[in-house]
Design a protein that fits this description.
By secondary structure, the chain is mainly beta. It has two domains: 1-52; 66-199, Distorted Sandwich (Beta-galactosidase, Chain A, domain 5). The chain has two helices and 16 strands. It has a five-stranded antiparallel β-sheet, with no helix packed on it. Strand 12 (118-123) and strand 13 form a beta hairpin.
Amino acid sequence: MSTTTTENKSFEITKGINGLEKVILRETHGSSVEVYLYGAHVTSWKNEHNEEMLFVSSKYFVCIFIDTKLGMIEVRVEGLETLDYLDNTKNRERYTEQGDAITFESEIDKIYLSTPTKIAVLDHEKKRTFVIRKEGLPDAVVWNPWDKKAKTMADFGDEEYKQMLCVEAAAIEKPVTLKPGEEWKVRLELSAVPSSYFSGQLDPKKVLQGA
């Protein structure tokens, strides 16, 4: 194991699950991130208060973490309204999103196409908004298995659907194929704003438009 420390943050390479190497980055204000070198899999993201921002299943499924009860009011996704999507629960049939925002009260597994570079996940109960900024990843997956499907998944707890929401940038409609020696560069940034649309302190349209 090697450790490198600078004035602003520390960098550590250590062993994780099954002996796989992982990198831990720590910032002086207390935030940290943990990334497995195999597949660049992010398995932890903690803020300056040491609060885990990612959902990590007891059976090692990892996704964006929403520590609240999902429902029509508590959690919603902004930025995907009026877009076409493929519904994985209906053999990938194509539809157009009709709502003002995406809310959750049953299983959802959709691939939104030609999405904007910014997507906001609003968490009313925790008064925070997750902002996803991306480049080179035109599509976005929104997924929650809900109760029935969660019970059939080997890598997911029966009640853990209440604690998570997966919003993932992707390139699905037009897959990218690389030949030997070719490169494909993408960028994905996750941030958390300590307020929410419902608190009256943050207008999601301003977040999405970069204001």
